[in-house]
Amino acid sequence: MFRKILVPTDGSALSEKAAKAAIQFAAASEAAIVTVAVAHQIPALSVPDNPGGVTIEDYEDAQDEISRKHVNKIKAMANGRLRLSVH
Questions:
Q1: Which end of the chain is least crowded, N or C, by CB within 10 Å?
Q2: Residue 49 DSSP SS3
Q3: Reduced to 3 states, what is the DSSP secondary structure of residue 17?
Q4: Do 74 and 7 contact (CB within 8 A), yes or no?
Q5: Is the pLDDT of residue 18 over 90?
Q6: Higher pLDDT, 87 or 12
Q7: Contact criterion met (CB below 8 Å) for 23 and 49
Q8: Beta carbons of 66 and 60 less than 8 angstroms apart
């Protein structure tokens, strides 16, 4: 019935619990999961011109790396459990 299941994550314990349930459901449904990481944006009003030498680009790069780690964790959790690929 289901082909793909969207699994958002922010790295929290609650999102990990939801991911485990989604992986089990996907395995039972012979579906794939698509994982999306949610990154926290830095509030523009709270950032001075140069906050200790950290630029917006540095912050965004760090958030990208954190997001990749969250997605990879869910991918590792699903590895070997799903018949279809994990994206």
A1: N
A2: coil
A3: helix
A4: yes
A5: yes
A6: 12
A7: no
A8: no
**How much is the pLDDT for 48?**
59
Tell me which residue of 28, 25, 39 sits closest to 67, measured CA to CA. Answer: 39
Per-residue pLDDT tens digits for 55-84: 778 888 888 999 999 999 998 998 877 644
Other CB atoms within a 10 A radius of the CB of residue 75 amount to 15
The distance from CA 6 to its chain's CA centroid, rounded to whole angstroms, is 10
Task: For the chain, give the percent of residues with pLDDT over 70.
Answer: 77
**Tokens in use for 8?**
């958002």
CA distance linking residue 25 with residue 5, whole number of Å: 9
The pair of structure tokens assigned to 5 is 């299941």
